[in-house]
UniProtKB/TrEMBL annotation:
Keyword Oxidoreductase attached: yes
Native species: Ureibacillus terrenus
Protein name from the UniProt record: D-2-hydroxyacid dehydrogenase
Every D-isomer specific 2-hydroxyacid dehydrogenase catalytic domain range: 17-301
Family the entry assigns: Belongs to the D-isomer specific 2-hydroxyacid dehydrogenase family.
Source taxon at top rank: Bacteria
Keywords: NAD, Oxidoreductase
InterPro entries hit by this protein: D-isomer_2_OHA_DH_cat_dom, D-isomer_DH_NAD-bd, NAD(P)-bd_dom_sf
Amino acid sequence: MRVYFTFDPRPDLKESLLRDFPEVDFVFHKKIDAEELAKAEVIVTYGEDLDEEKIKIAEKVEWIFVASAGIEKMPAQAIAERGIIVSNVRGIHKKPMAESILAHLLSIKRALPFIYKNQQEKTWNQKTKLYELNGSTALILGPGAIGSEVGRMLQAFEVYTIGLNRSGESAPYMNETHTMDKLEELLPKADVVISILPSTKETRYLLTYEHFALMKESCIFMNFGRGDLVKTEDLIRALEERKIFHAVLDVYETEPLPADSKLWDLDNVTISPHISSRSSRYLERSFEIFKPSLRKWMKGERDLENKMDILRGY
């Protein structure tokens, strides 16, 4: 069996694969080589380097393992037509992303940017407002693995958590869970709105200017899912008109965020360059999912962890 990595993992992780799977022929490249792609039966990728032409070249491929949660940049139709199985690393981001979300939230509530600015300017200034996270209500759009971990952390601060998902089925660490059609009803109740939704046909531009108008003026909006949840111009308008208190963004419609974007100039937005999921343990956790799946695959089993519906996008 030939397994082709379209990226080059760190040496210790490669060594663990070679040691644990001596019967597998592993190939590691920093970019795709067409000749190697044509020989591969399994591809391990971050997903952004595959297109329809490369899927045609990969005639032998039956399984693509994506070392990322998002698959929206992959050639879904071409993959589906071939019947190629796709699985990903959904869930490994929950620890670093939840910590990032909590860090940003506490930073705003406890005025850390103000404190850091004063330190740089050697200024003793106590004239700022400080708020508590305790006793607030958080509306979490997409209470899956990441959202539930965020909920667990928030509940430790005695935050009331409300989750919104497609099914309305109860989610871990949510005080309430509802279907997405309750969005407009629940937005006015939230002190914090956190989106961890993927990019799908259903979630694209789900939030509009009118939704921000429904939020409290003291609300903090946090987007850590995908940038096409809301049109940039709608978000900018809501921020300029102070419909909400602050926005924390880790994802954007266009990435990298253009230098001429108005978002850079607003004082009520925090811009994070899509790094909330990064961690020194990222690939280590990815391999903890890939290796058991590879063992299953070699036994002829196809019920892999995080097996995805490529056309649905999750």
